[in-house]
Write a structure and sequence with these properties.
mainly beta, 325 residues, globular, binds beta-L-arabinofuranose, five-stranded mixed beta sheet
Length: 325
């Protein structure tokens, strides 16, 4: 069974966490955009974001919209396009990490801070030093207590403009048998406001330990998410132009992660994007599709369904077009 979580508005790219025993969702706030649709993602013109929360069981609990939590009008360095955010809690403060294009149309990652999980969040005056690209996930690792930020996405996400954390003269997208472009992982500083180190590539490898090829329909494209299950690190992601959510498993936050399989088959709409959390002993996949908007890829709706594993820790594949709509 699947549930549309918030039929009142178009929201997408859910990042969810359990804070103080309650599920909070940090989605993108989709916006109508006429006459533009291209591979650069110019149709995703989000200007603000709201925080949602759920009373109890995500399949049935009442969903509350806590209103606007961040507006790009309040971010000093803002240009346009507030994309997929994530939030982490440390010592009673909440840190919202958000990708936003600066005034030169370059994606940077900002941090905004609040005293409550629902915000409102106050943005730091500048983006994180050395940040680039988009699609944020933050893992609070219960093994070492550190916070790890994952980011990156191809095409409109601008990851192909960087190598070794330096901007290239000209963007380079690998092709064919070349290794695919990896997501990035970086440990956060103790004050949560900067990177504590240089971001590292997150390799998704096959059973022989070779990075997935650029022409593999299961390779990383965008939408990194990491959760832990039975002590293993599960790195999941969108494959973009092949429209899958896939996952790979590793032994530490940086990887490498060995490719395992498909979590979600294609949904209505070009993009697919998700998060995975445990709540009250069960696991849930939050994602989006464009069915309620009649397939408009820039007007997406949030969904949730249960996610299950087999006895070896493999995730059972979910049908993107399956029941419950
Ligand atoms: O919402 C804009 C972009 O679409 C996200 O950053 C991608 O992951 C895709 O969902």
């Amino acid at each position: 069974m699947k549930r549309y979580l918030f039929p009142d508005d178009y929201m997408a790219d859910p990042s969810a966490h359990v804070f103080n025993g309650r599920i909070y969702i940090y989605p993108s706030h989709d916006w109508e955009c006429e006459n533009v649709e291209n591979d650069n993602g110019d149709q995703y013109v989000m200007k603000d974001m709201h925080v949602l929360s759920i009373d109890g069981d995500p399949m049935t609990g009442k969903v509350t919209d806590h209103g606007k939590a961040l507006d790009i009008a309040d971010v000093p360095w803002a240009g346009r396009q507030l994309w997929d955010c994530d939030c982490a809690e440390k010592d009673g403060k909440y840190y919202l990490y958000f990708p936003l294009k600066d005034k030169n149309d370059i994606f940077r990652i900002g941090v905004a801070v609040a005293d409550r999980p629902e915000g409102p969040f106050v943005a730091e005056p500048d983006p994180i030093r050395g940040s680039y690209s988009m699609d944020i996930c933050v893992l609070h690792d219960d093994t070492d207590g550190e916070y790890y930020l994952y980011f990156g996405g191809l095409w409109g996400g601008q990851l192909q403009r960087y190598r070794d954390n330096k901007a290239l003269e000209a963007a380079y997208l690998p092709e064919g048998a070349e290794p695919s472009l990896p997501s990035r992982c970086v440990r956060l500083s103790k004050d949560m406001l900067q990177f504590a180190e240089e971001p590292r590539p997150v390799q998704v490898v096959d059973a022989e330990g070779k990075p997935l090829r650029a022409d593999d329909p299961h390779r990383f494209f965008e939408a990194s998410w990491v959760h832990k299950y039975n002590g293993k690190y599960y790195f999941s992601y969108s494959t973009g132009d092949s429209h899958l959510l896939c996952y790979a498993v590793g032994d530490n936050p940086y990887g490498p992660f060995t490719y395992q399989g498909v979590i979600l088959t294609p949904v209505t709409g070009w993009t697919t994007h998700h998060c995975i959390i445990e709540y009250d002993g069960k696991w849930y996949l939050f994602h989006h599709d464009s069915k309620p908007s009649g397939g408009k890829s820039w007007l997406r709706s949030l969904k949730v369904c249960e996610l299950t594993y087999d006895e070896n820790g493999h995730i059972h594949t979910i049908d993107g077009e399956g029941n419950g709509e």
